[in-house]
Amino acid sequence: MTSRKVLTPIEHERCRKAYFNFLADGLQNHNNDIWRTILWASHKFMRMDDAQYYLVLAINELSVAEKNQVIHELTMKDEANQ
């Protein structure tokens, strides 16, 4: 059994920020259509490379609740701006 690296708080925040920025860019590129953004992200996640280190790490290390929180922040931000 391989042990996973425990992230430092700074690494964890970098992962969260990378995930947030990735989805925010996708949402903007898909005209704030969350469904199209999620589909795009799903396909994009399958083709990630190590050049996007913190984003790849975020996909594996952030909890479901943390990922959902990011999506909530993005969608509620858009609601506030409309």
Helix content bin: over 70%
Structural class: mainly alpha
Radius of gyration: 13 Å
**In angstroms, what separates the terminal alpha carbons?**
49 Å
Question: Which shape, going by the Cα principal axes?
Answer: globular
* Largest pleated sheet: none
What's the total number of strands?
0
H/E element sequence: HHHH
- What is the count of helical runs? 4
Mean pLDDT: 87
Tell me what portion of residues adopts beta-strand conformation: under 5%
Which terms would index this structure?
about 80 residues, mainly alpha, 4 helices, globular
Q: Can you tell me about this structure?
A:
With about 80 residues, this protein is mostly helical. It has four helices and no strands.
In short:
The protein has 82 residues and is mainly α. The protein has helices at residues 9-29, 34-45, 53-61, 64-81.
Task: Present the secondary structure layout.
Layout: H1 9-29, H2 34-45, H3 53-61, H4 64-81
Helix pairs in contact: 1-2, 1-3, 1-4
